[in-house]
């Protein structure tokens, strides 16, 4: 009797095993298909981003400029009580007036300074060894070579102006309606992650703003110190060289060395002793900037690890050229915020290391 009852149960169990196995196989196949689709989507997105990398870099530059516009407009709004839109309009008008007025008042002087700088560099070339100087002069006397260079420079200037227009309009539209674009990005995240996405974007904005403050301050200090030092040493074209040093300070580590080259060449045209003093001047300014100015600023701004900075600049230069080098450091700031908040905090459950809580 027991054997009779157990037989159907045994048969039923055997009949259910293929069905369960079939369902498991279908589930695994579905999961594998989803993983393959996600992987294909990620690869496709990365490939598309690589193809339009130059445009994305311009947009990122526009984001940086938009943060600058928006934060300055916030200060204007705080002190004047004007709405955000009117405050942004005031900032843009003041910027336009500054650029136009500065161009009119200082344009002729700056052009004269850079013309003198060009003449001084030409004079420095004359001081080079004979074989090297003859080779450079031969290249300069080649009319077709000069024509090709002129066409290349003209093309580069046109592309630069076009890129500048794209960056400016991107910055203006982003600064005018930041909430619209922030909501657009947040909507790409599942609903349960909306608050976290908003928090991450706010921290990224604060980090980039603090980095900008530190960078602009360092540029101003380096420009003033360089101009004053070169004037004291009696080096021609000191204001132009100081402006060049300030602009190239935006590219950390590499920029100061590039800025020192024309100054040393001009000083060498006067005497080897002047060239030595100029080299020591640039070295001293970088020591002051790196060991005094930046440590004081880093108490209030983003403290980016030096190794990360070097790696970012190297990778940006290799992958995207000069524009990549200029934007490598702020891009590294964004990536460090994402890694710390989305991986170290959310996945590992540890405290944030960059930016620290008191700086965020």
TrEMBL record:
Main subcellular localisation: membrane
Keywords on record: Membrane, Transmembrane, Transmembrane helix
Highest taxon listed in the record's lineage: Bacteria
Membrane-spanning parts: 32-50, 55-73, 85-106, 157-176, 211-233, 240-269, 275-294, 301-320
Region (Disordered): 1-21
The UniProt record lists the keyword Transmembrane helix: yes
Gene Ontology annotations of biological process type: transmembrane transport
Cellular location(s): Membrane
Membrane topology: Multi-pass membrane protein
Coiled coil: none
GO cellular component, one term: membrane
Family affiliation: Belongs to the autoinducer-2 exporter (AI-2E) (TC 2.A.86) family.
Name of the protein described by the UniProt record: AI-2E family transporter
Species of provenance: Azospirillum baldaniorum
């Amino acid at each position: 009797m027991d054997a009779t009852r157990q037989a159907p149960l045994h048969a039923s169990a055997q009949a259910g095993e293929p069905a369960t196995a079939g369902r498991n196989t279908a589930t695994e196949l579905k999961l594998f298909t989803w993983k393959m689709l996600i992987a294909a989507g990620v690869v496709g997105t990365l490939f598309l981003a690589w193809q339009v990398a130059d445009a994305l870099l311009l947009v990122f530059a526009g984001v940086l400029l938009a943060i600058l516009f928006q934060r300055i407009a916030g200060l204007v709004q705080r002190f004047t009580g004007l709405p955000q839109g009117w405050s942004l309009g005031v900032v843009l008008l003041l910027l336009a007036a500054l650029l136009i007025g500065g161009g009119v008042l200082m344009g002729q002087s700056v052009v004269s300074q850079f013309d003198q700088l060009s003449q001084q560099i030409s004079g420095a070339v004359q001081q080079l060894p004979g074989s090297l100087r003859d080779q450079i002069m031969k290249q300069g006397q080649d009319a077709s070579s000069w024509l090709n260079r002129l066409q290349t420079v003209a093309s580069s200037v046109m592309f630069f102006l076009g890129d500048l227009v794209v960056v400016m309009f991107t910055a203006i539209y982003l600064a005018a309606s930041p909430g619209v674009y922030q909501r657009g990005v947040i909507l790409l995240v599942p609903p349960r992650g909306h608050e976290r996405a908003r928090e991450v974007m706010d921290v990224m904005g604060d980090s980039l703003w603090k980095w900008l403050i530190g960078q602009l301050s360092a540029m101003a200090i380096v420009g003033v110190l360089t101009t004053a030092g070169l004037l004291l040493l009696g080096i021609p074209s000191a204001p132009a060289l100081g402006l060049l040093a300030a602009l190239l300070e935006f590219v950390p580590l590499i920029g100061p060395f590039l800025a020192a080259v024309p100054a040393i060449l001009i000083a060498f045209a006067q005497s080897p002793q002047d060239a030595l003093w100029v080299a020591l001047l640039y070295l001293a300014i970088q020591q002051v900037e790196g060991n005094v100015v930046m440590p004081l600023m880093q108490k209030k701004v983003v403290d980016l690890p030096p190794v990360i900075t070097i790696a970012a600049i190297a990778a940006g230069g290799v992958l995207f050229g000069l524009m990549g080098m200029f934007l490598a450091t702020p891009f590294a700031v964004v990536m460090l915020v994402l890694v710390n908040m989305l991986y170290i905090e959310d996945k590992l459950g540890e405290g944030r290391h960059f930016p620290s809580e008191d700086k965020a």
